[in-house]
Amino acid sequence: MGAGFLGAAYLWVKAAHVIFVIFWMAGMFIFPRYLVHHQEGLGDPAEEARWTTREAKLRRIILTPAMIAVWVIGLALAVNIGLLEGIQGLAWLHAKLLVVFLLSGYHGWAVGYSKKLAKGQAGLSNRGLRMMNEVPALAVTIIVILAVVKPF
Ligand code: HEM
Questions:
Q1: Torsion sign across C-alpha atoms 29, 93, 105, 66
Q2: Assigned domain for 65 exists
Q3: Arithmetic mean of pLDDT, 125-149
Q4: What is the mean predicted confidence (pLDDT) over 23-36?
Q5: Pocket residues for ligand 1 (CB within 6 Å)?
């Protein structure tokens, strides 16, 4: 398995990559909003139960499966483009992988925060949590510029 191993399937695989990226990002834009509403509803057991269920469904059905698919297909594209052979001109991909790694860390943090909220624990202030909501948009902007423009 090396550069070019995807052969004629390359463009289909890249299309699948972008499709799962859209699913993952859709989840990453909605999920933090759920956390804000959940935290503002703490103290009302019916409201808390509703958000806990919604977060669990979003995590299980969209967020986690989409992230796994983006990584698996993305790494296949990375092998296809010659990452394992150390081909020149892939600095954009190295930088992209770093930002995607950080975004995956944010994903993990948000899932952990949701589990804390399910126990009625709020770690950040409402304002702090709203600020954290902006992280995925910033990350996506950087990642897509790196992936499409390939500036270095
Ligand atoms: C999870 C780790 C990821 C890896 C290993 C990865 C790897 C890659 C590779 C190697 C390509 C280039 C394929 C080529 O042109 O031959 C690519 C394309 C692309 N990736 Fe990713 N990617 C990942 C995550 C993401 C994420 C999170 C986003 C967006 C938020 C993203 C957006 C894109 C886009 C838009 C393209 C198409 C670029 C173009 O055709 O010009 N990728 N990815």
A1: positive
A2: yes
A3: 96
A4: 97
A5: 14, 17-18, 21, 25, 70-71, 74-75, 77-78, 81, 93, 97, 100, 140, 143-144, 147-148
Binding site annotation covers 17?
yes
In-domain check, residue 98: yes
Pairwise CA distance, residues 45 & 91, whole Å: 50
Phi, psi of 124, rounded to the nearest 5 degrees: -110, 165
* Residue 137 domain boundaries: 8-149
* Number of domain units in the chain: 1
94 in a labelled binding site: no
Q: Is the pTM of this model over 0.90?
A: yes
Please indicate, yes or no, if residue 128 is contained in any of the structural domains. Answer: yes
For atom 32 of ligand 1, which residue has the closest CA?
A: 144
**Exposure string over 30-52, b if 16+ CB within 10 A, otherwise e:** ebbebbbebbebeeeeeebeebb
